[in-house]
Amino acid sequence: MSEFKVERSTVVVADPPRIHGLINDFRQWQGWSPWEGLDPDLDRTYSGPESGEGSHYAWSGNKRAGSGTMVITASEPDRIGVALRFLKPWKATNAVTFTLRPVAAGTEVTWAMQGEQKGLMGLVGRVIPMDKLVGKDFEKGLANLKARAEEPA
Question: Which CATH architecture describes the domain 2-149?
Fold first, then answer.
């Protein structure tokens, strides 16, 4: 068993509220999440509030997409917390945080995930660090989020 933290940041030329809205509503993730294209037939279920704290998203798809749930646990103007639970292809529970910080050029967005690698993933983590497994996905997702947030309104 080993603990991990993966973190990536980018600067988006948009105000924090614009970016916040794209993260705080799971329905908006289809426009920027790096995993949306893994299964064109992905089954999505939304429940709870449409956005913000208590908003819930569940997915189930092919072997690449797997299945799991996300729940927004905190929604503040500068931070969104998400409880992420993978059910397939392996079980894991991770804490995800998006931090929005105004900077001269716009907003610095930081996407972080932390948790523990257990069981088979604990063994895999000894050979391939979690940062290497999902870091590029975070970079792709942030690039997609940036493009989406910078589109003319």
Answer: 2-Layer Sandwich (3.30)
